[in-house]
Design brief:
This protein is an alpha+beta fold and 273 residues long. The chain has one domain (3-270): Outer membrane phospholipase (ompla), Chain C, CATH 2.40.230. It contains 5 helices and 12 strands. It has a 12-stranded antiparallel β-barrel. β7 and β8 form a beta hairpin.
């Protein structure tokens, strides 16, 4: 059985006991939901790196024991006092300060249609990634997390792993700041798909091939704010910086080894508690 099929079977096997357990877990409310939107200004590492401004939806809701979230939805629901994964997720463990969860999320891939220098290179196919993550607080303000995700549809997406630390500064009862620092590693398949140029693709576009193996992909840091205007409304925003490292940063596809993203938004939430 191929590796991606084994991974999918493992994710399914894990999800079955999770669904059964989570249905009886106190504190989960199917009536809880959140909807909102944010304005995002961002640049990309790949290509010319032109700045783009977009309006992105933010939401969170539940389907039985399964949580569905986009962007910061799961965190914003509790004004930052809760955390969760983006995509379709469920908790494996939430006890004794540990929070371990599994999730499925879309990876939208990439196209070079708007990059004149790279038109003709093969697109990165859209896929689904299965993710396992663990979080744990250290004291009142610090926390750390580790995660791993895998392409489960066999679209050459490979595997990634990451780790990070977060510091939360309470400005007031309604507002807090989150400062985060993280790093990401990827296997050879992921690195070649996202930063490499195969010999066949190089011939098509008249460029030199570029091959790389597994290694550190990049580091990220950011600062975010969350303000609960009242019980129903939340305002949020922040700035994130990303820097590619090593062979990834040296890829001929990379136009900007350092990028930043700025966002601000508002959301409406409905909570039982």
């Amino acid at each position: 059985m191929p590796v991606h099929q084994k991974t999918a079977c493992c994710a399914l096997a894990l999800s079955l006991p999770v669904l059964s357990w989570a249905q009886d877990k106190p504190g989960i409310h199917e009536d809880d939901y959140l909807v909102g939107a944010s304005v995002v200004s961002s640049t990309a590492h790949i290509g010319t790196g032109e700045r783009k401004v977009s309006l992105k939806p933010v939401w969170y809701f539940q389907l039985g024991p399964v949580r569905v979230s986009r962007s910061q939805g799961s965190t914003l629901l509790g004004a930052g006092r809760r955390s969760g994964e983006t995509g379709l997720s469920a908790e494996l463990l939430a006890a004794q300060d540990w929070n371990i969860g599994v999730s499925l999320r879309m990876d939208n891939g990439r196209t070079f249609d708007e990059e004149p220098l790279f038109i003709g290179l093969p697109d990165i196919k859209t896929t689904v990634r299965a993710r396992v993550s663990a979080r744990r607080p250290v004291g009142d303000r610090w926390s750390w997390n580790v995660n791993m995700d895998q392409d489960i549809l066999g679209k050459d997406g490979g595997m990634r792993a990451g780790a990070g630390v977060n510091y939360r500064y309470p400005v007031s009862d309604a507002t807090h700041l989150d400062l985060g620092l993280s790093a990401g590693w990827a296997d050879a398949k992921y690195m070649r798909t996202h930063f490499g140029i195969s010999p066949a693709a190089a011939q098509l576009v008249g460029r030199a091939p570029y091959s790389l193996g597994s290694g550190l992909e990049g580091v990220q840091m950011g600062i975010k704010f969350t303000t609960a205007v009242n019980r129903r409304w939340v305002v949020f925003g922040g700035v994130d910086l990303s820097r590619l490292q090593g062979d990834a940063a040296r890829s001929p596809l990379v136009g900007r080894p350092i990028t930043h993203t700025v966002n601000i938004g508002v959301a409406y939430r409905n909570m039982k508690q």
